[in-house]
Amino acid sequence: MSKNILVSVIIPYYNNENVIEDTLFSLENQVYKNIEIIIIDDNSVLKLPSLKKFKHLNILYKKNKENLGASVSRNIGLSYAKGELIQYLDADDIISANKISKQVEAINYKLDSIAFGDWCYFEALEDLENINNQNKYFKKQFISCDYLYELNNYFDRMMPIHSYLIPKKIIDKSTGWDETITLGDDGEFMNRIIPFANELIYTPNCYSFYRRGNIQSLSHRRDFKSTISSLKCTESYEKVIKTFYPKNNNLIESIIYRYTLNYHIFFDDKINGLFIKNKVKNEYKSKFSFIGSKRSIWLQKVLGLHNYLVFKKLLKKYFG
To answer: Could you tell me the pTM of the whole model?
Structure first.
């Protein structure tokens, strides 16, 4: 394993004062030591805990002058990164002590490859004593299109952003994080950069721990901005597949199925009555003209988890 590769750990921070110390302790305990940590404070109201206790860590702290969002903060963090490998890590999540070392070793200067590992949920640090591995399906090496298929073709497939170790040169081939997207930003980002990788390398028995129960998490939001974000994600997935894999019908079908989940949760009867009918209908009327109509509720129940691509074809037939 080379100890010469610098790994840049990018942490967007916003009012996570109660948990970020756990995150930093997990970095202090890393077997691999050639890392820099870039914390982008997204104009938090609450102060960041003192970093003096982490004096052995190479930490760069920057604070945004206004609240810009996690995706913007990650792009800012990347602009400061000096490492050849990028580790994204949210301020409420942690990684096992061997995570970076095993993935640096797996990549081994193959900077056209992305490493990924196992992961599990946790709510408190004591939960880590009883690891319940959530990675049941990704336990081998993949070429990019096969990985996207496995990730997208099934209801219960997920890989958290911090389970990956990504060469910066792969990220640089993309447009970075989409700063207009909030909910689903990590999945949308990974789907855009995975096609630039030759392979995805599985590194077993090194863990990313995904915190549950954080009410500040973006995944808990059900507002207008998050709904629009989900719709934009689905459009992005469609564009990626049509660009990189236009003749891969299996992958196209998997996208059609999987990413309905990004917005289907918003289209139940209660939420429809609260805000979808007004704001989303006005903004997306040309593409989703059915939203807010009486027929839409019936169609939602009948069509279930079909992707909006299928919706558009059927709705054109029903509504002209």
So the answer is: 0.81
